[in-house]
Design brief:
heterodimer; A: about 120 residues; mainly beta; about 0% helix; globular; B: about 120 residues; 4-stranded antiparallel sheet; about 55% strand
């Protein structure tokens, strides 16, 4: 099956710093990737849709200036949490849409962010 | 609007028992896709199955089986002879064909299988 990697898997940072999370599709090209956020014991909340070569589409309520998304190639999307604060602490998961016409999304292993 | 309901928040079973996880969806579209994902304690979502709206055939994969019934808008998931390794949160998700590519997730069902 399709493999999506995410790096780092875990990050602890000080309040006010920026954190970059990478999402890569390893064995397929993905024109569309997605970023989700998950709070403990909660479902996944879509933050934004990342489109290769164009601007990301953000969901309502998600600050695009705080969560910067770049999708520079068909295999890489990055999410940068700028000026992170403790309330940004969460589990961030990316997914990539396979272009096989079957609409399946494959998920990365997630990144646990803790902002002190 | 699309919606996925997983009414069972938590289920606890003893190993070797069968367990069914319910999923009810809502959509006005006639073309859509349904998914089940498994999220073990490690956090990674593992793809289990995809069904499109035109394929109501039930599927069996080892100890896993899925029952798709459009008449009741349900896509239930059964684990036969459950094992401890099946302990995880299971998410049902819906994607409508003509409203972008994002998935609508249910709230998940936490399954605990005890020895």
């Amino acid at each position: 099956g399709a493999v999506v990697s995410q790096h780092p898997s875990r990050v602890i940072c000080k309040s006010g710093t920026s954190v970059k999370i990478e999402c890569r599709s390893l064995d397929f090209q993905a024109t569309t990737m997605f970023w989700y956020r998950q709070f403990p014991k909660k479902s996944l909340m879509l933050m934004a849709t990342s489109n290769e070569g164009s601007k990301a589409t953000y969901e309502q309520g998600v600050e695009k200036d705080k969560f910067l998304i770049n999708h520079a190639s068909l295999t890489l999307s990055t999410l940068t949490v700028t000026s992170a604060h403790p309330e940004d602490s969460s589990f961030y998961i990316c997914s990539a849409r396979d272009q096989d016409g079957q609409e399946t999304q494959y998920f990365g292993p997630g990144t646990r962010l803790l902002v002190l | 609007a699309q919606k996925v309901t997983q009414a069972q928040t938590e289920i606890s079973v003893v190993e070797k028992e069968d367990v069914t996880l319910d999923c009810v969806y809502e959509t006005r579209d006639t073309t859509y896709y349904l998914f089940w994902y498994k999220q073990p304690p490690s956090g990674e979502l593992v793809f289990l199955i995809r069904r499109n709206s035109f394929d109501e055939q039930n599927e069996i994969s080892g100890r896993y089986s899925w029952n798709f019934q459009k008449s009741t808008s349900s896509f239930n998931f059964t684990i036969t002879a459950s094992q401890v390794v099946d302990s995880a949160v299971y998410f049902c998700a819906l994607k409508v064909a003509y409203s972008g590519y994002a998935l609508n997730f249910g709230k998940g069902t936490s399954l605990l299988v005890t020895p």
